[in-house]
Amino acid sequence: MDTSSIARITSPQSSPCNESLDNTITCSFRQAMLSDISSILEVENDSFDVKERFNSEIFTWLLISYPELFLVLECGNEIAGYAVGVIEANRCQLVSIAVKSTYRGRRLGKCLLRAFEDKCLKFNVGSIRLEVKVSNNVALRLYLSEGYRVIGKIKNYYSDGSDALLLEKRLSNI
What is the CATH number that goes with domain 3-173? Predict the structure, then answer.
C-alpha cells in the first residue's frame, strides 16, 4: 500500500480512523471553536460553488447551537476539513462535510464521516441522514460504501436546479 496517500489520524478519544498523510504530517479531529470559522470558510470556499456556500453567520449559529456535532480535521497547523450536523427528531442530520482540495484523495473524508458518526452515537439517535447532489459521484460512492442507503430524491434542491438524493444510515449498522 502506498502510504504517501494516507494520513496518520489521531484524536483525544479513540479515533474511528487510525490510519497512517505521509509520515511527516499528523491529522486529528477536534471540536470546532469560534476562532476556526475563518479557516472553515476557506475549506467551504474551496469545496462548494458560490451559490451553495455557507457564510460565517450560518457556521457560527451551527457551532453555538450544536457544538458537539461540529468537528474540524486539523492536519499540521491547518484545518483540512470539517463536518457539521444537527439533531432532528430521532436522528443526526449531516448538514455539511468538506475536505480542502489539497487533502483530497487520502481517505480523510471517510475518516471525517466516521468521526461524525461516532459523535452521533453519543446522542442515542436511530439514524443519520444527509442530502447529496445527484451528480456528486465521489461523495455518493463514499456514502454508499459506508452503509448509507438512498431513501428518496428531492427535486430542485440546489440553487442550480439540481436534484438531491436523500440518504440514511441506521446507526445499528455502525
Answer: 3.40.630.30
